[in-house]
Each structure stands twice: as structure tokens, then as C-alpha cells.
């Protein structure tokens, strides 16, 4: 098996293995859209007898971690054809990809895992959770009215391309787990609409909440209209909704929950600390269901720690079987430490607390961290705690 970098002409073949599991060959449109946001030198493929049987690629992100924005590899289109699975092809692809990321100096890699069993062995740790909701509009009342002091405007695709990105950029810059979107990303992905993505619902709708002429919140959604026995049973499918302030966020959700004719509002990929829990009179009615969201790989532990902000210090002894260059003791400023270790843990478990999505006490209760110096877990807990849960509003 030859694992190597792909050429730009091979993009279609690099997508094909994972596309196979979606039940399709990659369409021309899909290939064109990927080509706008994926650099060919970030694609790796596995080839046997002249045929590409596996692939793994990475977007180049500016990614928000607590207190900083870092370059990160956004791992995507990972797949091995069913004719070639369980022969180590993914392992070879991960080897090539992680070595490449390390050489490029990107301190972390992030991904959404199709199954939780795949990436732990390569040093990835589950680093964030997300939730999906479905709420009947009759139960969508807030505890107190929202005073957002703005007005809503539906946007054409062209208007959305100008108005929405600045709002997103403000939220992304202060939310661990989010990444900066380029113009190409907005066109090829976030605002892209096609029949294939509608799943029985309507066209993509874009709305902005503006105050004093400035966008402060937006939502992207679809309506799926239906009637049963003469009464409407429509659904608002929220693709993405966010605001730059508590009032703006509450305002955009009030808008979504107030769309006439619709019976319910459905949304996925929400942060686990979503303000709706404290805004709604009956938050239980959201039927919030949790799942894992981002997985993180600390490719260069020292650089990843140095990038984050910490309030106190503790010496971590990190074990990393797949990327042995990380095996060392670290102070939280990222420097290698000659002091005795306070805490011993695996690199994948450090990844789980890196964005603030899990805590050291949680790791301890699951038996995933060893406290050597008494009180060290409590100090590490203080050091790593963040004021908000990490949130990635989009599967890439
Ligand atoms: C997941 C996938 C890429 C794995 O590829 P692969 O070439 O079979 O993986 P490898 O042979 O390198 O497996 C390495 C190890 O991981 C294990 N493993 C791999 N995929 C696994 C899975 N889905 N569930 C459980 N274990 C898995 C293997 O058993 C092997 O374990 P071992 O080292 O103890 O023998 C492949 O099954 C696939 O394409 N699946 C469908 C698409 C998909 O899920 N892609 C990932 C998108 S995020």
C-alpha cells in the first residue's frame, strides 16, 4: 500500500472512499465545492495497484481555543473502501497526516468522528459535546420578554454574503471550538444551497437582526411546511443561529420560535450551555439530546499549551504512543519541565480538557488521570476552566 500526497487532479478519487459510505460517487458539484476550500497538498491517499482505496485530508483553519486563535488542521473526508478495511490503511494515512501537520507547525488537529471508536488510538480525545432539540412552538415562551431593540431583515444570497460573515466572525473569535470562515467557505459551504441538501424542506432562508444598521445576530434555516387534517404541522429547521450579545442571541431565537404556521422548531449542533436553557419558561420541552462534537489531537503539546491562557500552574507528564515527540513533562506555559510531575495522563485525555469541554475532575472520576501531587487536580481544574463550553456549529 502506497500512502502519499494527492495531486489536485486526484481530488475526486480522494473523496470517493468516504463518499462510497454515503451511497454515492462524488458528484461534479461536490468535487468543485471541495476544490474551493481544500488545498491539494493537504490531501493524502492510499493507493494499491494504481487504484486509490483510501483518503484523508485537512482544511487549514484559524481555530479558536481559550484565549487565543491558532492554526489547526481540520481533518475531513477520511475513508477507506470496504474492500480494504482493517488492513491498517487508516493507520498509515493518520501517520502521514499527523507527521505532515507536525512539520507544518499546526499545534492541533480537530475533527468530527463518524464513530467514537476510530480516533482515540491516534491520540484524539473527545473535546466537546453538542445537543439537538425539537420544541413545539406552543412551549417556546420565554420567562421574560426579550428587548433586542433591533429589526429583522430577510437576506438574498448576495446580501447574506456581506452581512452575515462579520457577525459570525465576532462570535467565532470568542468561542473556543469555532474557526474563521473564508469567503470561499461561505460560498461553497455555509451558505450553499442545493436540492440535495434540503431533505424535504424548502430553500435556505437567511435572516439578520440589525441594530443601528449593524448586524448583531443571524439565522440560517429552512421551513418544511405540511398540513394534517387541515392544521399546519410545519417545522423550522435551524441550520445555524447566533448573536454577538445575550440580547441579540435571545432575539434571533425569539424570531425562530415565532414563525407562524410552524408547529415546531428543530435544531442540531447546539452548544451544551445554550442560553435557551435559562431563557425558556419550559426548557425541558426542548428535549435536549447530547452527543459528542469535536475531537481534538494535540499534535504539538508544548505549542498547544503555550497558545492557551492559564491562570495557575501545574506540571503535566504526557504519554503519547502515536506521536512520541510529545512524550515529556510540561509546565502550562508549554515549556518542558525538569520538575517532578504533578499529574500523569495520556495525550488524548489532555485533549479532552484542552478546549474546556471536560474538566480534570471529570477525567479523574473516569479513571483517566493520575494525580501524583496531592491537590494537583484541583489546581489543574482552576487552570483549565473556561467561562463557556466549546462550540462548533458545523460538521466539516
Ligand atoms: C473508519 C475507517 C476509515 C477505518 O479504516 P481502516 O483502514 O479499516 O482502519 P485500520 O485498519 O487502520 O484500523 C486501525 C485500528 O482501528 C480499528 N478500527 C478502525 N475502524 C474502526 C471502527 N469503525 N470501529 C472500531 N474499530 C475500528 C481497527 O480494528 C484497528 O484496530 P487494531 O489496530 O487493534 O487492529 C473505515 O472503516 C471507513 O472508511 N469507515 C467508513 C467511513 C468513516 O467512518 N470514515 C471516518 C469519517 S470521520
**Ends distance:** 27 Å
Shape: globular
Going by helix content, strand content and strand pairing, the class is alpha+beta
Largest sheet strand order = 1-2-3-4-5-16-6
Radius of gyration: 22 Å
Number of strands: 20
Relative strand content: 25-35%
What can be said about the biggest beta sheet?
A: 7 strands, mixed
Outline the fold blueprint.
Elements: E1 2-5, H1 11-21, H2 28-37, E2 43-48, E3 51-65, E4 68-80, H3 89-104, E5 108-112, E6 125-126, E7 129-136, E8 151-154, H4 157-173, H5 183-190, E9 205-211, E10 214-224, E11 227-228, E12 231-232, E13 234-243, H6 246-257, E14 262-270, H7 276-279, E15 289-292, E16 294-298, H8 301-307, E17 316-319, E18 328-330, E19 343-346, H9 347-354, H10 360-365, E20 369-371, H11 376-384
Parallel strand pairs: 4-5, 13-14, 17-19
Antiparallel strand pairs: 1-2, 2-3, 3-4, 5-16, 6-16, 7-14, 7-15, 8-9, 9-10, 10-13, 11-12, 17-18, 19-20
Bound molecules: coenzyme A (COA).
Q: Can you walk me through this structure?
A:
This protein has 396 residues and is of the alpha+beta class. It contains 11 helices and 20 strands. The strands form 4 sheets. A 7-stranded mixed beta sheet has the order 1-2-3-4-5-16-6. A 7-stranded mixed beta sheet has the order 8-9-10-13-14-7-15, with helices on both faces. A 4-stranded mixed beta sheet has the order 18-17-19-20. Helix 3 links the parallel strand 4 and strand 5. Helix 2 packs antiparallel against helix 5. The protein starts with a strand and ends in a 12-residue tail after the last helix. The relative contact order is 0.14. The model has no long low-confidence stretch (mean pLDDT 97). Bound molecules: coenzyme A (COA). The site of coenzyme A has 18 residues, from helix 1, strand 4 and helix 3.
